[in-house]
Specification:
Elements lengths: L3 H16 L1 E2 L9 H7 L10 E2 L2 E2 L5 H18 L3 E3 L5 H12 L5 E5 L15 H4 L2 E5 L9 H11 L3 E5 L9 H11 L2 E5 L4 H5 L12 E5 L10 E5 L17 H13 L5 H14 L2 H23 L3 E2 L8 E5 L7 H11 L1 E2 L1 E3 L13 E5 L1 H5 L4 H16 L4 H15 L11
Parallel strand pairs: 1-13, 5-6, 5-7, 7-8, 8-9
Antiparallel strand pairs: 2-3, 4-10, 9-10, 11-12, 12-15, 14-15
Helix pairs in contact: 2-10, 3-10, 4-9, 6-7, 11-14, 12-14
Bound molecules: pyridoxal-5'-phosphate.
Length: about 425
Amino acid sequence: MNDKDIYKLILAEHNRQSHNLQMIPSENHASADVFKALGSILTDKYSEGYPGQRYYGGCEVVDKVENLARDRAKALFGVSHANVQPYSGSPANSEVYMALLDPGDTIMGLALSFGGHLTHGHKVSASGIFYRSVQYETGSDGYLDYDVIAKMAQKEKPKILVVGATAYPRIFDWQRLRVIVDSVGAWMLADVSHIAGLIVAGEHPSPVGIADVVMTTTHKTLRGPRGAMILCSGKPSTPLKKVERIKENLPTLIDRAVFPGMQGGPHNHQTAAIAVALREAAQPDFKIYARQIVSNAKKLALELKARGFELVTGGTDNHLLLVDLTNIGVSGKEAEDALNKVGITVNKNTVPFDPRGPFDPSGIRLGTPAVTSRGLKEDDMTTVAEWILQAIKGRADNKKLDLLSNEVKKFALRFPLPSDQKV
Ligand SMILES: *Cc1c(COP(=O)(O)O)cnc(C)c1O
């Protein structure tokens, strides 16, 4: 690579990832094939529109790429329509709102400080600026309280109920939420960004057939490139004609909101990489991977509890855990810093009804998707839990942190990144 400045930084990031354990639950390690598609010549091609209906010539090859990605998404999730063009999860959610709502309509989503995403109606995001937003919270036990959600829906009459989270360690009861949505005649958006990989592997119930629209990012448990997909059912997308906002028109409404509503030219290299990831996620070993993610998370939860840590909801059903550090006497930020020094990358996070606020919250969020991609198993979670305890206890002792950091590095190097593993 001629650009030595960027080359050095890429190497530095490669070293950082190899030497550390990535335990941010929204991160993962994509395969060498995903990287190859991302770094391919497909990035050069403009192709506004959809396969067979483009505003540019020379799209015969990228049409095939996009159709392959769409077909694989439909088969894997069991939907009749897939839009694979969203640049990422946040624009994808805006596109769903644009498809189904008018500005000023009411969005109801889980509050950010209770594990929701910014794009679920938080006031500083487009979803909270262009729409009227009402936000539900979890119960004090950290679980969604479906009765509270039902009451709020009755009172606020949202046009759309958004269900999904970035920091929720339990299963979503899609059917229960559908009953609430139907009682007020709203749309239901399932944002499964974090758990899509678990869903396709059968490790978490699927909202397909229950929610009206399913949105997922492609770079979290699904282990693809950064990107997103919007999935739904209905009549095939029809260009030009005016369409009513009814269920059978969802494919057309979504496709128009993505392009020309919000976006321009599709990122064809990204679409190809999504297709690669979808093929990988359809292989039998992906099921084993997803099961291991959950086993590792459950084991890590047990080992942390055995060391005196308190978990929001007392444990996990999925890939992540939320640790409430109040009883340990350390803040989320202090813990994040200490863990970063020893090479365990996590992020600070609010816990339900957090008295400390978002900039220095009471908790940390830990996830197993990335370390499981490197091959860590249940026994390794015991080692990791002990390091977490030692790092937090020794946070003022730089010598101890240095020693721990060496141990973590030696350990991490035994588990090469998937993109470096021989296939
Ligand atoms: C990650 C995430 C998003 C946004 O994805 P970006 O690609 O970061 O824009 C949206 N919703 C949920 C629930 C997420 O976890």
